[in-house]
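Contributing new records

If you add data, match the layout below exactly. Sequence lines come first and carry their own label; structure lines follow with theirs. Keep one chain per record. Anything else will be rejected by the validation script.
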Amino acid sequence: MSILFRRFPLMLVLIHTLILSYLGFAKDVNIHVWDKLLHFFGFAILTFLVHFVLDCEDEKLDDNDNFWTWIKRILMSAVGFWSRKKNYVNNEVMVNENQTENVFRIQVEEEVIDSLSDINLNEINQNTNIENENRWKKYNIYLTIGVMVFLSIFSEVVQGMLPYREFDLYDILANLLGLIFGLLAAILCESLYNYYLRKKSSETHSLLHTSNRNSLVLDSVVNLPLNHDYYIEV
């Protein structure tokens, strides 16, 4: 059970945070853009990037897991972030074919039953994965909102403590509006991307199922033993 970090969005978050920090805390910055508009788009882009930092697609959530146990896993995963590698396991299936008529018919029936049961198990596993995916996405949204609300308020408080800056409550409002816009845009993009992946997966699964059934029929025709019992004397 591990939560991975996407390195490219994380790098973009760090770069964008440095840019916003310079624009917010530097003394002599002259930008001919409305200040509230800059706050809005700055936090909208930052929220959009923060939402995609965590990669929890391989995360398996238990029934007793809650938001805080999920946060602990994030902190534990952050310790070995740069040295973590994904391991992929390849499974090989050996199929033995019999040449006699009775054994072959039993084997074909078992393969058809196994294929149908595998389809049912795949549907159950797919539904379970969708439920887990919805849970961690909900936790990810909560975490993104918490982090960005803290940054939108804390950054303005720090600006108010500087002698050459003034505290402005409308800047916080612009930050929060940008947070909402960026989060909605991130959720929409993620939903469209997941819909595209599910559509491709269902099409591939249906094609594999059709080819599997066709291969079983062809094998049953090709591998039938040539016995005189199959011929009819006229």
